[in-house]
Amino acid sequence: MNEPVGLRELKKERTRETIAETAIRLFLAKGFDQVSVTEVAATAEVSRRTLFAYFPTKEDLVLQRFADHESEAARIVRSRPAGQDPLEALREALLAALEQRDPNTGLTDDPEAKAFFGMILGTESLAVRLTRYASRGIDALAEALREAGADPLVARLTAAQVLVVQHELAVMNHTCLTAGESAGERHPEAVRAAERAFDLLSHGVGDKASGAPPAPRSEQVPRPQ
Amino acid sequence: MNEPVGLRELKKERTRETIAETAIRLFLAKGFDQVSVTEVAATAEVSRRTLFAYFPTKEDLVLQRFADHESEAARIVRSRPAGQDPLEALREALLAALEQRDPNTGLTDDPEAKAFFGMILGTESLAVRLTRYASRGIDALAEALREAGADPLVARLTAAQVLVVQHELAVMNHTCLTAGESAGERHPEAVRAAERAFDLLSHGVGDKASGAPPAPRSEQVPRPQ
DNA sequence: CCTTCCTCCTGCATCCAGTGCAAAGATGCA
DNA sequence: TGCATCTTTGCACTGGATGCAGGAGGAAGG
Lengths: 225, 225
Fold this sequence. Notes:
Two copies of one chain form a homodimer. In chain A, 68% of the residues lie in helices and 0% in strands. The first copy, chain A, is mostly helical and 225 residues long. Chain A binds a DNA duplex (30 and 30 nucleotides) through residues 6-8, 11-12, 15, 36-38, 46-50, 52-53, 56-58.
């Protein structure tokens, strides 16, 4: 599990970075659909053919950085404190991510991160390809939940629900931010929404999908790590 | 909102049908990726260019029939009996669909429907494009839930959860059927899974995602409102 | 029946994403 | 230095998708 870093591996990694950076820079500047891979390749000073050796599709130029995060949720569940409920671990991780303005929560003031997020949501082919990564994330999370002792059916359904909900929350946050709010302004509401969402996951919408907020879980045991 | 059916409209509709049917027939026979649109066009006896006038992409040749169903869930909620809980309406609709072996539940013995379902799930570009239709379904269902009086946040999250869960259930059913089970054999388990899923939606996974089935909801209070 | 108009169909040229192949170049190693 | 291996590259090709201009065939009016 180690890198025998020879000249080859080094240059490869560097080339890969250069290509991805160049691509994202161009895409952010002119729009994903307005830039051809030929243009990316030329700007990154590699041949078209080489670019495709590193990134199987144009979309992957943007999204492969999500590949690392695709099993994030599963990892959180696996590395949770002994005895802690998986959902609780995921909830805390989300709140922590919001606190740190993790770009994946949609809650960040970094203009480039916002633009990046917006580009993905606003580009059909990217949004679509992103769900592919998400669905692999579902598989991973479901597996982790089974390891945690969940019934396979429940594990799968819960995994799907958690990830779709996290995605929706991120989209909502991003929407508010592009509407002019700052991350700081949005943060309290983002936290409320996240807690509400996990309440729904834990306790359901009840018999009334319309219901008022269920008993607000005012104080949460503060568990960093 | 009416069709002034002249010869033109008639032929157009017929052509559209012919193209879609031809395409699906060819795709089922040889696989989606193994058939080019050129071949579809030739077989349907229209020009390539005409085909693209009817269907914007190759995927739409297969998926546009889902466009009608994309707001199905929203319709169910809107047309539910007065006083019924939206989730309850969706639950009943799903059980009814299972009973009728609705192909969309993945539970059908019709070989063509099974093959169709399998082709979509087994073809990257189709599976991915399908989620696009699903996400429009989320928008519609969320809107319907808001109309039903739900808090906007809850509406959106619930809508996303319901549809993702229905999709997962359908995939599970389809998996069992392709493994050799008949729809009749699978049905009881499919019903159990569906009820379990709606229990999760209504009452949550509880504090233990691992828990044994929560108190079996023998009878549902029929009238919370 | 003929003419005019309009719409839809068609072929062609073109762009772009993605792949196979074989030659040329760089690197690691003896 | 020389050999084996892996990268890079150019080229040709497939297949999806679009723009354009001309043609065919319904629709409408005389």
